[in-house]
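During the no-cost extension, the postdoctoral fellow (Dr. R.K.) reprocessed legacy sequence entries with the updated structure-token encoder. One reprocessed record is reproduced below for audit purposes.
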Amino acid sequence: MGRHPFLAVVGWLVTVAVATVVGLAAVRLIGDSITGTPGGVRSARDVADALASPMPSPATSGTDASPSAGPAPTGGTATPRASRQFTVRGGSAVAECGPAGVRLVYWTPAQGYRAAEVERGPGHEAKVRFVGPDGRSELKVRCAGGHPVLDD
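Re-encoded structure tokens follow.
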């Protein structure tokens, strides 16, 4: 009678140890996709720095149909465009100044907000209005000295 409970406990411990080793091996095999964020977790400052850095220019082959891509140059050298990121309570946007005026390159609502009205440009002024749980916030930009600035 003394041996059966002992063997049951030993068998249970061996089963638990094998299951643990198999589980750890499976997690190691699957890798970061189950245990973390691929590429690591980025801080708010890292994200802001990445958004503030200049974006690579689109290919001028005429095959890029994205709405944020500007028209292909018509000849000669392309005019460099000054761009800048702006942030308000409801979201953020990147604007650039070019020969035709200011243009919103893209905009991103903050969590819980949506872009309710957008005047993308190019023109004298470009704006986006964000609407969310804390009300409305508007981001309006214009060009001054060839650079985008907030227009109050």
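Residues 3-30 form the longest helix (28 residues). Helices lie at 3-30, 32-35, 44-52. The remaining legacy entries will be reprocessed before the final report is submitted.
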